[in-house]
């Protein structure tokens, strides 16, 4: 198999290069956006990896190719007549099961034939015995319709599925349209590949060019892929929730929003705790919020004091813990934080991230804060960014649910419970 990598300023040009170099039989193995050069103004380049079976096709430069005889007017060539569905049925895809089938065949050939015959005779005897018994056939279960939207399991299957063969200029345009739309929403490779492949097999060509239908499909797909925890309801047991994360993401303000929002619902007793003794202003800010909401505020210096606070406020339903901002690269500070909030503390740790941060930095932050037992992600500053694909990219890649979203500074108005429809609305930018 001949594998080549093509680069262009946009996806249609890249796919056009694939077809010119390898022909319409080419297999698209992967697509991605890369940045080359140096500095902050690096230009994005679309990179397409394609392949063709060199044993069946001889690849020649365009100048050396033999042109087919032009058919009479009104007739179609074989290439024009063939459809995408026919290409798929002809297995013009890289199927990893071929090797498994060949291996099974070789195992059967190498087996002792007498052993195989004995097993066949046993099966025949069992079938005869079953056929002599009365059969009580249950009613056939109803046939479930195919899923209208994509589940996380379907997404995983489509990410691993072999790439589809290019069959014509219309297919190239549709594929480029799908990829460009997802890129404009800020949806990156892992989620984009799954959504694109599922759309390619589910939507008709007319639907792919219907922007309203595509937007509805994207929204349904995002809702199916994202996981959420729901609001911080309190059961019979006291819940202890800590917000952790880098500096400047809005942990203290989010703590106040959570407390005010839950108090407005009524019937819940709350205490606020801060272990952020690095910033005097943070302590004073939380105390002001506590006075306004008439809830106690405790300042803790050591893990032992934190446990004492829990014992002192046994009558509270919920204890919200504010923490100092930590650099994701400061291993020593994260280790210190782990002494307060480690697995034995009985505390739920919710990582707060700013949606305006680049996806690569968000992924790195989640990985570094992974030294703590993380329960969910909280995204803030949604009002400060145009693309919000990170609401899908990061949770899907890190396999963590979303709990809350904030889109402003007002307390408690600018706080939303993360539900699939709300997340899809932010990512797909629905009005």
Key terms:
globular; Rossmann fold; 16% strand; 2 domains; 431 residues; eight-stranded mixed sheet; three-stranded antiparallel sheet; alpha/beta
Helicity level: 40-55%
Shape: globular
CATH class of the largest domain: Alpha Beta
Number of domains: 2
Number of helices: 17
Secondary-structure-based class equals alpha/beta
Residue ranges: pLDDT <50 for 5 or more in a row?
62-97, 137-149, 156-168
CATH architecture annotation of the largest domain: 3-Layer(aba) Sandwich
What fraction strand? 15-25%
* Rg (CA only): 29 Å
Give the N-terminus to C-terminus distance in angstroms: 47 Å
The average pLDDT is 75
CATH fold call of the largest domain: Rossmann fold
What's the name of the CATH homologous superfamily of the largest domain?
A: P-loop containing nucleotide triphosphate hydrolases
Strand order of the largest sheet: 6-5-7-4-8-9-10-11
How do the helices and strands follow one another from N- to C-terminus? EHEEHHHHHHHHHEHEHEHEHEHEHEEH
How does the major sheet shape up? 8 strands, mixed
User: How many extended strands?
Assistant: 11
Overview of the molecule:
With 431 residues, the chain is an alpha/beta fold. The protein folds into 2 domains: 2-61 and 148-225, no CATH class; 239-428, P-loop containing nucleotide triphosphate hydrolases (Rossmann fold, 3-Layer(aba) Sandwich), CATH 3.40.50. The protein is 44% helix and 16% strand. The chain contains 17 helices and 11 strands. It has helices at 11-22, 78-81, 84-89, 97-110, 113-131, 152-160, 169-184, 189-202, 205-208, 211-225, 251-265, 280-293, 303-312, 331-341, 359-368, 390-398, 420-428; strands spanning 2-8, 27-36, 43-52, 239-244, 270-274, 297-299, 318-322, 348-354, 374-380, 402-406, 415-417. The strands form 2 sheets. Strands 6-5-7-4-8-9-10-11 form an 8-stranded mixed beta sheet, sandwiched between helices. A 3-stranded antiparallel beta sheet has the order 1-3-2, covered by helices on one side. Helix 12 (280-293) links the parallel strand 5 and strand 6 (297-299). Helix 10 (211-225) crosses helix 17. It is globular, with a radius of gyration of 29 Å. The two termini are 47 Å apart.
